[in-house]
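Figure 2 data, in text form.
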Amino acid sequence: MNQVCPRNEAATLRRALEEPIYNKSLRREVGRGELDYEVYVRTRELLALQIPLDELVVPDELLFLVMHQTQELWLKCAVFEATNLVEHLNGDLPFEAMGSLDRVVHITQILRDQIRVLGRLSPSQFQIIRRSLGNGSGLESPGYNQLLAAAEIAEGALGRLIARRGATLLDVYQNPEDHADLHRIAERFVDWDSAHQTWLVEHFMLVRRTMGIDKTVRALDGFPTMALGARMTKPLFAELWNVRVEMTQAWSREGGFAPGEQRCPYTAPAGQFVGA
């Protein structure tokens, strides 16, 4: 058996991984781009889109680039599903709309979780990577801008669906049992918005860790990092948050029980279950 010096083991492994790998189960070499999986996924083209390993300015640059590339792919999927959502809402297909909404929510949660992989990127390493980014900014992301545009159209489609039912958003929230499907869809929109905002919060925290948040610290696009604070809390669907404000403003203590007061048995509306 050939002995490999531990100091050279990583270098030997890197060289070996540059060549196709023999898969014992398939009895084929994987990595030439010739197998059906490789052809369908286009692995040779996909894995050639990154900076060659020997040209990385720091090792973490590969992770930084792949994270942003995969986020663009996920955003492409989210925009695709958001467009389907608009079609389903305009076609009065609430069940199908929920399916598309579920996918958008899960994808946005993936975006939120995925950015955390860069949480250990040190300021010194990022400062080196940053020198090769030109004036690049997340605001230039095609997927991000497409998502904002699709979300605006989706919100309008939801509003029209509610109006076709002869209701308002406030009606849906004040009487959810009378508008069960609309209420469920509206709340899933809120899930989407919540995931979107927490994704931006994760980005804010990454910027804070690598660059710092201050009016004197400017991103490559010229905007001060302090501006991210307002951006990350700006909702996609303002009306869905404002309806809660409207309900709370109209709230009254009347009809409740004082703490410790003996309560009468609760009688639920018809069709609702009351526990023993």
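Caption note: The radius of gyration is 26 Å.
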